[in-house]
Every structure is written in C-alpha cells, then in structure tokens.
Prior knowledge:
Elements: E1 2-4, E2 19-20, E3 41-43, E4 70-78, E5 89-92, H1 94-104, E6 112-113, E7 116-117, E8 130-138, H2 142-146, E9 152-153, E10 157-158, E11 161-162, H3 180-186, E12 191-194, E13 213-217, H4 231-236, E14 254-263, H5 264-268, H6 277-284, H7 308-325, H8 344-347, H9 357-366, H10 372-375, H11 392-395, H12 402-405
Parallel strand pairs: 9-12
Antiparallel strand pairs: 1-3, 2-3, 4-8, 5-13, 6-7, 8-14, 10-11, 12-13
Helix pairs in contact: 1-7
Amino acid sequence: MATIAFLWCGVAFCDVQPQLRGGVAYPPCPDGDIGNCSTDFVLDRSHFRGSGFYTPKDPELAKPSSAKLQKFYMYRAQGPPPDYPVENVDTTNLDGVLWYLHHEVIQTCTGEGYLSNTGKWGDRKFAISRLRRFMVTTKATTPLIAKGMNFGVFKAFDSGEATGPHISGGSGAGTGQNSMPEWEKYGFFVGCEYVGQFPHQQWPSGNDYPNTIWYSLPGECPTYDRKGKTAECNIMLPGGACEQMPTGQGNCTYHVEEAGELDIDEMVGIKPRWSDRAAFCSQCHTEGGPHGPGGCGLNFWGPNINDKEANAERVAKVAKMFDDKYPDMPKSADMAAPPCDFDQSRYGFSGGPGKSQAAVHEEMNGGGQLGCSNYGCGTYDRNHHCQCNDKCSQYGNCCYDYWTKCGR
C-alpha cells in the first residue's frame, strides 16, 4: 500500500474507489474528476497496472496487440540481497552478461570501476557476486509491430531513469523526460541492442561473444531516477511490467519470473578452493579481465575477451551450470534469446544502416562462411564446422545465422 498525498483533476481514474483512512467517507468522483475526492488516502498500487488507469494518446496502445509472445531467459549480474523489482533496469541474455562481467567487472579486487567504489577488499565492481536468471515473456505493441519490430531502442537505465538515447536528443542523468514522445508513440516497450551496435558502437568486443544482447525494461515513471519518482508519475507512466502474461498493450509488454541464480565465485572456480574472493585476491591478485587471464591458474575467463572460441565455450559451460542446478526448469537451449530486431531507421533515429540489428549481426558474423541457410535446420552433423539443431546453443556451436533461420 502506498500513501498518495494528492491527485490532480481531469484524469479518468474513477473506476476504482479510494480506500480512505480514519473512516472518513468522501463522495465518489464526479465525471471522472478525482482532484476533489480526497486529499489523503491510500491506494493499492496494483490497481495502476489495470488499463483503466492508462490513457494513451494512440488508442491502439490501449488494445491488446497481435504480436507474438516471446519467452526466454534474461540475466542480471548483482551484488548480495536485498533484491528489487526487475523494472527500470537493463538486463541481458547469457552471452551479454558474461561479456559485461568480462569487459568491466572482474578485474578489480577493491570494487573500483566506472561509477563504482565499494572500498572493500575482494569486491568486484559494484560488489557483484551473483548471476541472476529470469524467465521473461515479452509482447510488442501494435505501433511497434507496425514498424516491423518486436523490440524498441535499448534505453540505458541509471538509478531507475531512462537516460537515453532519445530521439529528441540528449542523454545522461536528468534527461529521462526526453523519451516521453517515444513512450507515447510506442508504449512502454522492451528495448534491445547487440553490444557493439547502436547505441554502444564503442564496444566492438561485444561481437566477440556469440550473441551479445542487452535489454531495457521500463517500469513506473521511467522519466526520473528513484529519488525523483512521485506517486503521480507512477500513475501516469505505469511502465510495461505485467502481473500476468503480457497483452501487448502499451502498459503490458513484459512479464518477469524468477528462474534461479549462480554464485559467481563458485561459477568461476574461486570457491571452494579459496574461502572467499578476498582470500583469492590476496594470493592471486586478479580474476582476469579483457586482456589477460586470472592469477594462480584461474582461467575461467580465458586468455582475453577477443577469443571467440573460448567465449562460446564459456557461454555453453554456464548454461550447463544453470541446467544442472535447476533440472526441473526449462533448459537454457530451449529458452535462448530471440534475435534483436530493433531497426534504428524504422524506429525513428537518423543515420541507421537501414536494416535490423539482427541482420547486421548476421552479416558481421557470417561473412562468406557456410551456415544454416546451407545446412538446413534441425539435424546434427559432426562434419559441419557449426550446427543448426536445438542443442547448438547449449554447446556453443551454433552457426552464425541459426537464430534468424532456425531459432524459435
């Protein structure tokens, strides 16, 4: 329950009566005007998930869409509990989270890094210690599907604020309101990117992992950071999280379920050989990083971030760890990420390549080599340099065009 100090006039929210404190009875809202109903009442915030409180300018956003449901695993690298809702955050597929750890998290033993300084010996950046997994179902809105996309632009969320990129320009802290025209046009969509493409072309090593995808999940009031969010903003901008399966309405584009986690110290082999990461750091100095292996023979991260074969093997290894730890949950290979079909130009940004990110990714990784378009889908052949069956993600040997030709 959340206390609302006041609400404003002229908003059609009156299909739900307020639950008033102190036994004081206020009159029902007249003609959809709630500004004079109560100055101090308590509302169950779950009401605001209902379409009766979402009044988009485009009536198509108030209706369920005909887009396909897409169900797959997403991941987040986090520190110790407590946990928080998976809203107004960025997530990844498995390749994406391992690239993130490899690229900028594991090399420190003091918690130092961009925007991070925990000051505790043994810490990774942001004190990250867990790899959390979620089963996420997404459904695009009608305006987005009309543009030929299941995903919109990836939004970088910092402290709960969508900091860009924005079609209207600007980026960074304090620019969240610049995305308002996009939420109004497309609804609260799930965004995606292949790391190394727009808006993060500055990280080409993202392409050295097989299928490095990041996602953005807008929640309540994505225009402000956590300190700036208000009850009124949460009502007017409800975000895309759904209590049940998504409908493709503008305020119901994704549903998140917990799907397990791994202890990163155990995942990489620090435990049980060392009691904790602090003890490992004292003896071995580094877990590894983009340009070198770990100390004391710890080689989970391989020689460097550009070793594509080692990266693919690492993705398959961690997928198996999850499968072994959670045998009753869907297998990683059956819940792999769909292609990121965001198209910079069709969405509305200038300067795009004129094709989806999935198509660019296929071209970058395929070149002239043989793939599923040559081999066909569904069978294993040990004589092929890559595979096009439903186990290839598990073993890290999918052909470059598997997801666009054969993926489910």
